[in-house]
Amino acid sequence: MDTHPTTCNILPDDADRALLVGRVWRDTPHPGPALIVVRDGRVVDISASVACMADLLERDDAAAFVAAAEGEDLGPVEELLARSLAEAPEAPYLLAPCDVQAIKACGVTFAVSLMERVIEEQAGGDPARAGELREELKQVIGGDLSKIVPGSEAAMALKAELQARGAWSQYMEVGIGPDAEVFTKAQPLSAVGFGRGVGLHPASEWNNPEPEIVLAVDAAGRPRGASLGNDVNLRDVEGRSALLLGKAKDNNASCAIGPFIRLFDERFTLDTVRRARVSLRIEGADDGFVLDDSSDMRQISRDPLDLVHQTLGAHHQYPDGFVLFLGTMFSPIQDRDGAGQGFTHHLGDTVTIATPSLGALVNRVDRSDRLPPWTYGIRQWMADQARRR
């Protein structure tokens, strides 16, 4: 699938049969977010029928409801996508499709990304050491980590061997151990949507996008749909210390989700997610750099349902539901600024994350301190809900 950001390829390949829901910012009849469904190529505001995305995903009949819900026609979906890609978009334009749900993420769920996390740790955040360490680790670890089932006897035997060699890592623990890494990526209502700038902390000099599929899960732990996400990664910050994960992951505009949530139905299921191939395209605005790559969800080391169950259960509840980044195998290592320097973002990069069943998420890269600050929180959302009622 061509992932260059044009409105013709942003929608799923079978958009005419997909149940797509999302959120837009409207200026009228009063400023605030509105819940929408894409139907017959038109955008329909269904906020009068359901208050928020979290409420919609709790409905047992969510798929049938959005297929029939009435509302105000906001125009062709192509116009909405074009407005959302504009530098200064005019309303209505797309927001992240989740609202009051918790935003959670899983790390180190692919063997390739596991190796790169270990390299970050061993390099102490210094990109110049990455290439040398990559070769050393391949010699020490050997074999194909993707064939290791996390928590299995084989995984525990490998752990004992690596510990004996002094090569064990906290990233190996969550990569092949029994417990997945699950962390809070961002706060409710803080994620940016399709077309908006995605932010890097100004202190970071070694970073990359993390293209992922994001599950939309209800309060009972049932996956109700999926979207695309960019779990922006600051390799130098987290590489200095895993205890800096919060600083590395949760910054202004550092979480992008969209363009829509596609609800599960008989055509689009969790098995579709399991079989998905996710593509990544990075286009440099200042140097003409282009990176094209793709990853196969079949290579994930933990099943998406296992990740959901490790997130929610008797040990932890989410009464408003949650969205869950499933992890990525991407840690781009293609040299950009010189031999042995690997990849890092330049400001102005365009990042396109795509898969045929979900369409494409497009964002431009900037610094978190230069992007619009996050000012629309829970209190303002509650006030707007009360005014709408």
Question: Can you describe this structure?
Answer:
The protein contains twelve helices and 18 strands. By secondary structure, the chain is an alpha+beta fold. The strands form three sheets. Strands 1, 2, 3, 4, 5, 6, 7, 10, 11, 13 and 16 form an eleven-stranded mixed beta sheet that branches. The longest helix has 13 residues. The chain is globular and about 65 Å long. The N terminus is likely disordered.
How do you describe this structure in short?
By secondary structure, the protein is α+β, with helices and mostly antiparallel strands. The chain contains twelve helices and 18 strands.
Reconstruct the topology from this structure:
Layout: E1 20-26, E2 32-39, E3 42-45, H1 53-58, H2 62-68, E4 72-76, H3 77-85, E5 93-95, E6 102-107, H4 111-123, H5 130-141, H6 153-165, H7 170-176, E7 181-186, E8 197-200, E9 207-208, E10 211-217, E11 223-231, E12 233-234, H8 235-240, H9 245-249, E13 255-263, H10 270-275, E14 277-283, E15 290-296, H11 304-311, E16 322-325, E17 350-355, E18 359-367, H12 378-388
Parallel strand pairs: 6-16, 8-18
Antiparallel strand pairs: 1-2, 1-5, 1-13, 2-3, 3-4, 6-7, 9-12, 10-11, 10-16, 11-13, 14-15, 14-17, 17-18
Helix pairs in contact: 4-5, 4-7
Number of helices: 12
Low-confidence spans? 1-5
Terminal CA distance: 42 Å
Strand count, sense and closure of the main sheet?
11 strands, mixed
Radius of gyration: 21 Å
What is the beta-strand fraction? 25-35%
* Count of extended strands: 18
Which word captures the global form?
A: globular
Helical coverage, percent range: 25-40%
SS class: alpha+beta
Average pLDDT value? 90
Oligomer: single chain
